Amino acid sequence: MNTTAQSQTVATGDMSPAQPALSRTFLRRLRKVGLGLIVPLTLIAFWDLMVRWTGTRLIPPPADVLIMMWDFAFGGIYDDGFSASLPIHLWVSLQRVYGGFLVAALVGIPLGVALGRSPLLRDMLDPTLSLLRPVPVTAWLPLSMIFFGLGPKSAVFLVFLGAFYPILLNTVFGVKSVDARLLEAAAMLGCKGSQLFRSVVLPAATPNIFNGLRLGHGFAWILIVVGEMTGVPEGLGAVIMDGRTLSRTDLVITGMIVIGVTGFLSDRLIVLLNNRLLRWSPQHHV
């Protein structure tokens, strides 16, 4: 009987420190969410106030946009061509965004590593890349339609262009910024060649690579609207363009909100992956 009581006491004593830690973690996350909601809720309140104060009919109030979002997702209100069409448009845009983004990462990261490691290659390619980088993606729109025709390939190409340069430049910077003392220490320990790259260069450059991926990911979602101006019938960018043509401002704002929420959630996945891979370096956690 005494043994049972002692084991219960020990178990209770072991659990008690964990409970305050869980409570503190929950409260910290709750506070973070609450602080993050202050600005969006303030903007929505200001939006509603200004619409009521000006009496404009060009900008719908938040309540009308909420109704449009419900109909866009589930239907049953307007029963038009956009009702319950969110899954189709979202899925098509996801394919185009992540098609272009993945190609940009697959090209930009290896090329950035090569440029960061090789001064000769950097001297060869940097002038050309610096010449092409300032050209707006919208300027490539006519050429993309000539190269790839009207359709999704042009959209993927434009998304690729927008995501490519942030990924490339951050990767180059990360590789070039590896502390020379780390390389010297690794060389003294007999680390060289591919082992030096895997053990020292790549881990040290990973935070900058993830910064480039986050920036490129954001540009990919920004440019999906431009990419879907190439005559595609489906996609969130196409919905926004249709809303503009039809003077459906509520539809335009709905498309913007869906893009923003989807981009935010997918950015959180990149952040989780960043924190997971860089768990050895807490100062680089987001």
Primary descriptors:
MetI-like fold; single chain; 2 domains; 286 residues; mainly alpha
Describe what you observe in this structure:
This protein has helices at residues 2-15, 18-54, 62-74, 86-117, 119-132, 141-148, 152-176, 180-188, 194-222, 224-227, 236-245, 249-277. The chain is mostly helical and 286 residues long. It folds into two domains: 2-59; 86-284, MetI-like fold. It starts with a helix and ends in a 9-residue tail after the last helix.
At the first level of CATH, the class of the largest domain is Mainly Alpha
> What's the architecture of the largest domain in CATH terms?
Orthogonal Bundle
SSE sequence, one letter per element: HHHHHHHHHHHH
Number of strands: 0
Poorly predicted runs of 5 or more residues:
6-13
The CATH superfamily label of the largest domain reads MetI-like
Approximate helicity band: over 70%
Distinct helical segment count: 12
Q: Cα distance, first to last residue? A: 51 Å
**Major β-sheet annotation:** none
Mean pLDDT: 86
Whole-number total of structural domains:
2
User: How big a fraction of the residues is strand?
Assistant: under 5%
Shape: globular
Give the class from helix and strand content and strand pairing. mainly alpha
And the CATH topology of the largest domain? MetI-like fold
Give Rg in angstroms.
Answer: 25 Å
